[in-house]
Design brief:
The termini are far apart. The longest helix has 10 residues, at about 50-55. Helices cover about 45% and strands about 10% of the residues. The chain is an alpha+beta fold.
Length: about 80
């Protein structure tokens, strides 16, 4: 059985607003099949679950502070930083 989130679909315009992208870019994602969607006639609808999957697949994890400090000891100090 589908969850209620799967039953909610958004038009490309609403997806663009949610992701702060242009409608043209969203349509490009749909045309390239990089964003899962439902096509009804000439309309494209994006299920909420597809949008969640897309965001999860394109999320970049932040480094922890101790990971960013490890590489800093190997680098030479920037001359710009001394100004």
């Amino acid at each position: 059985m589908r969850s209620s989130a799967d039953l909610r679909n958004s038009a490309p315009k609403h997806v663009a607003e949610r992701l702060s992208l242009s409608v043209r870019h969203v349509r490009s994602l749909l045309g390239d099949r990089r964003l899962r969607h439902v096509r009804v006639g000439r309309r494209f609808l994006v299920p909420e679950s597809a949008l969640d999957e897309f965001l999860a697949a394109h999320t970049v994890q932040a480094l922890r502070n101790d990971q960013t400090d490890e590489g800093a000891s190997d680098e030479q100090p920037s001359p710009i930083g001394r100004l």
